């Protein structure tokens, strides 16, 4: 009997084991394939690459570039991958992940500078400089991004006195396409300075950088509600001309009941209670992230959710009027809500820059245009950036208001086409008003729109080919607009 069972079932069991083994091998191979598919926070451009290389030490970064040259592979540079237009990868190329190259090398309180590796985040810098009573001058409104990534997009933020990030850079070291490492400043290898900052990783790897710092200070939050057509005069009279206002932002309603009409503004004024600085100096952590995510979720799905969210935002900031907060903490905004991962939809960003004196007419034209479009606009933040033309790809040809738009869209081709048509229309309106748009986002704009918004674009791409004739550093943004 047992002999019969062994004869009958052992081959069956053996067959099952073989099938399971082959299935696991297939899964491993398939998983390996998926591991080579990379995307960014928008998830709109999944791309198969050759491999990701972690840059942990300078030698390993140099070796990775050397090997890529020997194998004739393209190289892209990635930090947190919040650029949304394929700026950090390229098909069948090498992605150099810099997030482990993240040391704060030194803080110099006397000269008010910090020396930091490019994979460090703004949070890393804040933790290093805060004990010295110092703060960064310019960064985005969230501190999760890498320094190298922020330099590559020439970021700006809430500070209205220090312009774009390029203005706060003393020098950086650059690993060039040929493997040489050079120091770049306004006086040394100066031709690279305005190209690399705001250069989207196309000229080499930023290894480390020295940034200017500023004294941290205690600020008082002030908030006020107004209509969109009052904002331009309000800003000029009550914000820009008051040197005690150090940081500023505004929000424009996306709620259907008050669409692009209601605003509230938030100013951060130097407090007259500096003696209380130490009571507020500890770095804060994110608060209300769950509530923000929940309300944004309602805004994605329901018009009443947008109305509710807008009312609660105004109420929240109104209740905070008079609050004290350090400069460092004002720059530590909530960030987890940026990581939305819907199955069939995603959140994207757009940013449009319009001359200050064009604001009211621009909003009127934008409202009229969007009222006829089916686009899920969830938030509009308004900031200010002063004229700064040092970077070749400068977005601030004069003093500008920057409108940051958060848009929810589907991930399918039909949805991308619909969103793209609407966005190209918005960019046309922006350009008609003498404005420009920010380049780190999805490839919706046309080549003609890029050149209209950035009159030095051809110069930029010509320098790219001059300084990187093999086009070793490559990404999908350059392929779309530069080649």
Describe the structure.
This protein is an alpha+beta fold. The protein folds into 3 domains: 1-35; 104-215, Uridine Diphospho-n-acetylenolpyruvylglucosamine Reductase, domain 3; 218-440, 2-Layer Sandwich (Alpha-Beta Plaits). The protein has 15 helices and 19 strands. Helix 11 packs antiparallel against helix 12 (413-432). The protein starts with a helix and ends with a helix.
Q: How would a crystallographer describe the biggest sheet?
A: 8 strands, antiparallel
Oligomeric nature of the chains: single chain
Percent helix among the residues? 25-40%
Supply the CATH class of the largest domain.
Alpha Beta
Strand content: 15-25%
Q: How many domain units? A: 3
The neighbouring-strand order within the major sheet is 15-12-14-13-17-18-16-19
The CATH level-2 architecture of the largest domain is identified as: 2-Layer Sandwich
Number of strands: 19
Number of continuous helical runs? 15
Mean pLDDT: 90
First CA to last CA: what distance?
76 Å
Tertiary shape: globular
Uncertain regions spanning at least 5 consecutive residues: 17-33
